[in-house]
Amino acid sequence: MDDHLSPPGPTKALLFGVPAVFLWLLDLVSSRPDGSWLPLVSGPLAVAVLFVRGGPRVEVRAAAAALASGGLTLGLALGRVQVGSWGLLESFALLALLTVTTRTARLPAGYVLCALLALAVAAAPVRAGFESDAETFAFMLTVAAGGALALGGYLRSLDGRRALAVSATQEEERRRIARDLHDFVAHHVTGIVVQAQAARAIRETSPEQLEPLLAEIEKAGTETLESMRRLVHVLRAEPGATTRPADLLTELAALVSAHGDAATLEVTAEVRAAALTPEVETSVHRVVQEALTNITRHAPGAGDVRVRVAKDAGRLLVEVSNGPAPHERARDRTPPGGRGGLGLIGLRERVAALDGDLDAGPLPDGGWRLRATLPAS
């Protein structure tokens, strides 16, 4: 089912439910005895089409709603049956469905469906009879349908821009991973070549030393294949320059110290003694760098900035947290470059490539925490 047609959360349910109940009560008050059940039933049915759980795609719902509403209007007009209210709740639900259809329906079917929904909305006042200002209400609903089309089109353009931005961010992260992989493979292959040359040099004079060298060559080859296995499935571009930090702990200390005196770094003894793979080291560096950048942008002056790298249940845990901003104004201000950055999307791409997990969210005290788990070996 389309995400935009899923059952609304508490806030959305309140925003939609209050006017929906009010309009249904208006339908109840203004309906005539000989046709009172029509708007009282058609309105809730239209809401059900909009929000029912597990229903069909938006295109099917839009077609069913437009044909049912238009058919009801035509049947009442041909039978000369008039109702006091044509169905205010029904029109409200159809306008919401028109907005969703404009935003999400696949083209070119969306053009036809939007036209049918707009026509069904505009024609509904005919049910009340032409002598009851049906033309005026039809004009008002036509304007409302135009507004729903405009809103849906605007949201569709925003969705398109967002999708393009996400795609560009993921592609950039793939390029970074490709550069890292180029560096890792070059490092391992260089070691293999050097050891192979040494084995060749001592082949005649010290054959007993060949076995340790061959074991080292085998180990280096295995590490190279492991690095490629973890990363190559997300690559889409040619490798470029090196981006691996020279030394992970030194780089982390530099990142934290650059953030100010309020920031602290904690690296457990287990992590200091661990032999992390190069791709994991680079990912740890990127996670901490992105988290500290987000704190600078979204919570300037926040106290208790803490970076912690530890081992947990055999996995490497990277956690960056900060307290709330010292002033409400600082917390609510628009960050430099605006909101809605895509840095976390790139991080998730990188962490997922290593069979890791990343999540970020608010803390109970008003702060924020980013937490990543990666392979420890």
State the strand order across the main sheet.
1-2-3-5-4
Give me the number of helical elements: 12
Shape: elongated
Please state the average pLDDT score.
Answer: 77
The N- and C-terminal alpha carbons lie at a distance of 40 Å
> How many individual β-strands?
5
Share of helix, binned: 55-70%
What is the strand content? 5-15%
Order of helices and strands: HHHHHHHHEHHEEHHEE
Helix/strand structural class: alpha+beta
Q: What is the CA-based Rg, rounded?
A: 31 Å
Return residue spans where pLDDT drops below 50 for at least 5 consecutive residues: 236-246, 328-341
Major sheet characteristics: 5 strands, mixed
Description:
62% of the residues lie in helices and 9% in strands. It is of the alpha+beta class. Strands 1-2-3-5-4 form a 5-stranded mixed beta sheet. A hairpin with a 5-residue loop joins β4 and β5. α4 runs antiparallel to α5 (109-123), α5 runs antiparallel to α6 (134-201) and α10 packs antiparallel against α12.
Question: What are the salient characteristics of this protein?
Answer:
377 residues, 62% helix, elongated, alpha+beta, five-stranded mixed sheet, single chain, 12 helices
Structure summary:
With 377 residues, the protein is α+β, with helices and mostly antiparallel strands.
